[in-house]
Amino acid sequence: MKKILYFIPLLLMAVSCDWFEFDNMDGYDATISGKFIDSATNEPVLFGVGSGDSYAFTIYETDFKPEKGNFVSASQTWYARTDGTYTNKLVFSGSYKIQTLESSYYPLTQDFSIKKGDNVQDFNVTPYARIKNVSISYDSANKQLVAKCTVEHGDASKTNGIKVAFMGAQDRFVCNAHNNFTDATAKTKFLEAGEVELRVNVTGGNNSEFKYSQPHYVRIGAVAAHCSIVDPWDESVVDWGAWFAAGMPSDMTPFTKIVHHDAEYTADGTVNTKEMYNYSKVYKVSADFSTITEVTDWE
After folding, report:
1. Which of 71, 88, 82, 99 has the alpha carbon at shortest distance from 169?
2. Closest by alpha carbon to 164, among 265, 81, 233?
3. Kind of pairing between the strands at 56-61 and 94-100
4. Cα dist. 111→39, 98, 271 in Å?
5. Are strands 94-100 and 108-114 parallel, antiparallel or unpaired?
6. Are strands 216-225 and 227-230 parallel, antiparallel or unpaired?
7. Which of 60, 126, 163, 230 is the most exposed place for a label (fewest CB within 10 A)?
8. Three-class SS string for the chain?
């Protein structure tokens, strides 16, 4: 009996402590949606959604006051769609800040408010590269998909080189990390800017994409960076073809040859250090390559 009497006060003490308090915090009271907009063109900035791409962004709630303890604004990770839009339907009203450091546009820090109910908040940004005048076609004579575009710098005072890639995959989320195009003609080295034509064979290589008859999804990606110019140089390399053709000499000394390398741009890592891609819209190519249409469903 004494043990029971000792236990009852302890139980009363336990139920009166904070562990057993009901959560009296109000629930989510707001929703928010918006776009990432190119401040120069007023067009949406488009994203990839693969590993290493820039569709995530960081949000801080700046005015939350807890009942107990000190407030430290914890970061929240929100996500954009491929078409440059975002939506969050579970938000608290209050004061917020967006802060992005590694994305496909120049770093952004901006305060904004969310009121109760529905909100629209766009963010004006400067992309590292712009892709314009996109044309996707099928060259039936050469059995190649062809991508043409014009690339330019988002801020020509900060970048001077752009490399471009033609990408393809079996679903609409094609991006640098989700790309089955392997042809050398499907990408460029760093170039200054201007018009670009890229091609990919639909027979032979790229078997993971064209092995079966199915629709294909394609887009163009571009990386802008600050580049230094590497002067032309000559390199001595092993000429294995000549060595084997000669029957592999007994002294086992491979033949060498001189390979000339032209001058080229090389990113120096000072701008867009992660080499994030900017993207064109996504296009769906029919299985027989006869129809090419823009993808618009990103919900």
Report:
1. 82
2. 265
3. antiparallel
4. 17, 6, 24
5. antiparallel
6. unpaired
7. 230
8. CHHHHHHHHHHHHHHCCHHHCCCCCCCCCEEEEEEEEECCCCCECCCCCCCCCCCEEEEEECCCCCCCCCCCCCEEEEEECCCCEEEEEEECCEEEEEEECCCCECCEEEEEEECCEEEECCEEECECEEEEEEEEEEECCCCEEEEEEEEEECCCCCCCEEEEEEEEECCCCCECCECCCCCHHHECCCECCEEEEEEEECCCCCHHHHCCCCCEEEEEEEEEECEEEECCEEEEEECHHHHHHCCCCCCCCCCEEEEEECCEEEECCCCCCCCCCEECCCEEECCCCCCEEECCCCC
Residue 3 has pLDDT above 70, yes or no: no
Q: Considering the domain 129-226+268-294 in this protein, what is its CATH number?
A: 2.60.40.2060
Fold assignment, 26-125: Immunoglobulin-like (2.60.40)
Tens of pLDDT, residues 16-55: 555 555 555 678 999 999 999 999 999 999 999 887 788 9
pLDDT at 69: 58
| 63-117: pLDDT as tens digits | 876 666 565 667 899 999 999 999 999 999 999 999 998 899 999 999 999 999 9
The answer to whether 190 and 165 are in contact (CB under 8 A) is no
Domains 26-125 and 129-226+268-294 share a fold: yes
Domain boundaries, the chain: 26-125, 129-226+268-294, 227-265
The structure tokens listed for 59 are 């949000």
Lowest mean pLDDT among 1-5, 20-24, 137-141, 285-289: 1-5
**Phi-psi bin for 60: left (phi > 0), alpha (psi -120 to 50), beta?**
beta
Q: Is the pLDDT of residue 7 over 50?
A: no
